[in-house]
Design brief:
Blueprint (H helix, E strand, L loop, with lengths): L15 H11 L2 H13 L2 H16 L8 H72 L1
Helix pairs in contact: 2-4
């Protein structure tokens, strides 16, 4: 048994509207930096590095208890990480909005097609009724 390490729906093609939005987003160096930091900060490597950093700081006595500088560094880290989380959420919202807008366009197209089909069905019904009426009159 093999463990699949690729993306979960790899056989499903990426939505073209989302692909275009990702390409536009990648054009900005700021977005690429934010995406890279967000990706790293959301990984276990970030946790491991943070644990090692804090352990070294405390074990080797970089500063005395109550670790004022370390507290400030951790607070700043939390501020920046929460900002990157919000950036990531905004990006996810943008993706959902793009997909939703495209789905709405599809629904509107299907609605127009359904109305056209209903009109054609109504015309077929009227023609069928007219043919029945003519055949009934001709047979009588």
């Amino acid at each position: 048994m093999s463990i699949q390490t690729s993306r979960p729906h790899e056989d499903v093609p990426e939505h073209p509207h989302l692909k275009r939005a990702a390409d536009r987003r990648a054009e900005s160096i700021q977005n690429r930096i934010a995406d890279s930091i967000t990706k790293f900060a959301g990984s276990m490597w970030f946790i491991y590095i943070s644990l090692v950093w804090f352990a070294i700081w405390i074990v080797f006595g970089v500063e005395d208890y109550p670790f004022g500088l370390l507290t400030m560094i951790v607070s700043l880290e939390a501020i920046f990480l929460s900002t990157f989380v919000m950036i990531s959420q905004n990006r996810a919202d943008e993706k959902r909005q793009i997909f939703s807008d495209h789905q709405f366009d599809i629904v509107q197209t299907e609605k127009a097609q359904n109305e056209e089909l209903l009109e054609l069905s109504r015309q077929i019904l009227e023609l069928t009724q007219a043919i029945h009426a003519l055949t009934k009159d001709a047979g009588a």
